[in-house]
Amino acid sequence: VQLVESGGGLVQAGGSLRLSCVASGRNFSGHGMGWFRQTPGKVRQFVAGKGWGGANTYYEEDVKGRFTISDDVAKNTLYLQMDSLKPEDTAVYYCAACPPHLWIGVVTTNTPGVYWGQGTQVTVSA
């Protein structure tokens, strides 16, 4: 299984970025998919999640109304559209996939059965 993120970069406050995560190596039907972020010395935090191919989406409070998670099942790709970016959004962003019996919003890097991408850096300048 591979999750490969792309789309990170440097952007000014108020700008936008779209992250992509290409998933391969298995059928992700029924899996929870999500985006997490991590800054140095901090625990990796949930940002947004959804069921693979599903309609319901979930967001961490600080990003509600600014970030949008979506997927394209035909392209095996998960997206995170990030608008109105703030300097405090600066972090490494990770894509994750978890099996159906888990809720993506509570998984950690120590949760068995969860797949993680390698991360993509997002830097928002003031």
At a glance:
With 126 residues, the protein is mainly β. It contains no helices and eleven strands.
Account of the protein in words:
- The protein is an all-beta fold and 126 residues long.
- Helices cover 0% and strands 49% of the residues.
- It is built from no helices and eleven strands.
- The chain has strands spanning 2-6, 9-12, 17-24, 32-38, 45-51, 57-59, 67-72, 77-82, 91-98, 115-116, 120-125.
- The strands form two sheets. Strands 2, 4, 5, 6, 9, 10 and 11 form a seven-stranded mixed beta sheet that branches.
- A hairpin with a 5-residue loop joins strand 5 and strand 6 (57-59).
- The radius of gyration is 13 Å and the shape is globular.
- The N and C termini lie far apart (37 Å).
Instruction: State the separation between the terminal residues, measured CA to CA.
Output: 37 Å
Taken as a percent bin, the fraction of beta residues is over 45%
- The shape is globular
Structural class: mainly beta
Poorly predicted segments: none
Task: Tell me the number of helical segments per DSSP (H or I, 4 or more residues long).
Answer: 0
Biggest β-sheet description: 7 strands, mixed
Strand tally: 11
